[in-house]
Amino acid sequence: MPAWDYEAVDAQGRVARGRIDADSARGARDRLRARGLTPVDMREGRATFDALAASRLPARELALFTRQWATLAQSGLPVDQALAAVAEQADSPRTAKLVTALRGHVEAGEALPAALARFPRTFAPLYRGLVAAGAESGRLADVLDRLADYLEARTALRQKFTVALIYPSLVTLVALGVIAVLLVYVVPQVVAVYEHSRQTLPWLTRALIATSQFFRATAWLWLALALAVPMGFALALRNGAVRARWHAFLLRVPGLGRLAGSLDTARFASTLAILVGSGTPLLRALDTASGVMRLDPLAEAARAAAALVREGMPLATALKAQQLFPPVLVHLVASGENTGRLAAMLERAAGELERDAETRLAWLAALIQPVLIVLMGAIVLVLVLAVMLPIVSMNQLIR
User: Fold this and answer.
1) At what angle are helices 93-107 and 46-54 packed, to 10 degrees?
2) CA 199, CA 394: separation in Å to the nearest integer?
3) Rounded to an integer, what distance in angstroms lies between the CA atom of residue 134 and that of residue 118?
4) Residues 323, 271 share a domain
5) What is the pTM of this model?
6) Residue finishing a domain among 98, 123, 148
7) Residue 201 DSSP class
8) In a domain, 303, yes or no
9) What is the DSSP letter of 345?
10) Residues 68 and 102 both lie in one domain
11) Which of 14, 26, 209, 369 is the most buried (most CB within 10 A)?
């Protein structure tokens, strides 16, 4: 609940200052009057505001909040009452606190988009823009319903990708752990036994010993690299030119490029569908949808297509001219423009692209899993051979 710094006077004219918790400035004044104080000045506590503004709801909680809000808005409840009901139903204290603060700003007389803008980490520009369009057109309930569908679809797709990548990630971590233990701990123990035999060791065993000694001597360096490389890569991607080259490289990688392109194009199509379906002008919708794309080459292509549409070119023709968007999107957009059902065709294109991405991810995961297992088995086989070959040689000498 927000806190308010106040200055008030009592019945004897004495000045009182302090902080009081309330949903809104009006609620804080009512509580002060109930104490026999007359408010003179009322300001929202800076520390509380900063804490709330810095908070961020997870995607799943934001989708649930939007769905509950849409349902209540469709039943005819005013915005402040709907937000109060959502706050009461929230399972997460974090969600309840944020929604209560949002309701307080609305009750204080702020416009709904301005109140949402106080929490930029939770409500992205797309979210705020759609809510503003719905509030201006009187179709807030319909817009919230579409927005809830959009957020739920994004959350479900993200969960599918996470589940698909769990097994390959675990196999990779286990493989690296096993190899590290063998090289750093097991091999030195075995080598100590062979050193006393004073026999010429097979080349594979000597190579394994040299590798083990190298990794043991540079263990801290590898740990430092494991931390420094991801951090350096993340910092490098903040540079626009570096990020654009990296994204262009990803799009050229066989298999992975099509997967990343399908995901980003699906995000573009679904965002454009919800904007167009909410009554947003096409040019404004294109500018907003271009901003949600994560791959720089595709985002630049979307902005170039928007420029062509601004000059009078049909959207399908403008998208086709970029030679980066999948044919299914171009064909369905052309069909939507011809039939006047652009929003519906964009939603269908987004669904097709998401299904294509899921199929590609399933194939990629099915390919990675056996490759990782075979690779791990081959490395372990080499290690075992390197350890066993001297034993076989000694047995042959004894015979």
Assistant:
1) 120
2) 8
3) 19
4) yes
5) 0.68
6) 123
7) P
8) yes
9) H
10) yes
11) 209
Report pLDDT for 152: 87
Whether 193 maps to a domain, the answer reads no
Please, is 166 exposed, middle or buried when counting C-beta atoms within 10 Å of its C-beta (0-12, 13-18, 19+)? exposed
Per-residue pLDDT at 47 exceeds 60: no
Q: How many domains does the chain have?
A: 3
Tokens of 64: 């649930």
Distance, in Å, from the CA atom of 296 to the CA atom of 292, rounded to the nearest integer, reads 10
In a shared domain, residues 7 and 72:
no
Do 62 and 33 share a structural domain? no
Looking at 50-59, 246-255, 290-299, 368-377, which range is the least confident one? 50-59
Average confidence (pLDDT) over 212-220 = 79
By three-state DSSP, how is residue 76 classified? Answer: coil
CATH of the domain at 349: 1.20.81.30
* Residue 338 sits in the same domain as residue 291: yes
The dihedral over CA atoms of 82, 85, 91, 92, expressed in degrees to the nearest 10, equals 60
Do 312 and 265 fall within a single domain?
yes
Segment 343-388, tens digit of pLDDT: 889 989 988 888 888 888 878 877 877 887 888 788 878 877 877 7
Does 213 reside within a domain? no
Alpha helices in 75-202 (DSSP H): 79-89, 93-107, 112-117, 125-137, 140-181, 187-195
User: How many Å apart are CA 151 and CA 59, to the nearest integer?
Assistant: 7
- pLDDT value of residue 196: 63
> Which residue segment(s) compose the domain that 331 sits in?
256-359
- For 44, phi then psi, to 5°, come to -70, 135
Confidence tier at 289 by pLDDT (50, 70, 90): confident
Q: At what angle do helices 256-277 and 296-310 cross, to 10 degrees?
A: 40
Based on the fold, state whether residues 68 and 47 are members of the same structural domain. Answer: no
Among 57-71, 86-100, 157-171, the minimum mean pLDDT is found in 157-171
Residue 47 and residue 96 in one domain:
no
Summarize pLDDT for 87-109 with one digit per residue, the tens.
888 888 888 888 888 887 787 77
